[in-house]
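hey can u check if this looks right to u? its 121 residues, i copy pasted from the old doc so theres a chance i mangled smth
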Amino acid sequence: MVQHYFGHRIRDYRKARGLSQSDLAARLGKSTSTISSYETDAKSIPVDSLIPLAEAFGITIDELIYGDNFEAVSVKNLSSNEKQIVSDLIRVVQSKQITSEEEKLEILVKIAHMMGLFFKD
């Protein structure tokens, strides 16, 4: 029995970008038959091929593996302070509760500062 992994996504992303199997193979330094075997899940994709594949399609590895419905927030270009704010927000949302009015205000003030909503006199 053949297990289906994410080969169909490779095929779909490739076709959506107007690439042939030969085009993709050339970009990745692989043979056309290797790309075909990836797309049919006949051959497992080596971990070291995931980044080049995702880059060829202009997507993240998560999107490659999990599909277009994968939602992620990139903090790559945020400052360490902004990353902390995002982390705090995620914690609050995941806990589904904010313990105090003070904590609500503190988080809102951090967001406002990050967004540049407070101006210096």
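The chain has a mean pLDDT of 82.
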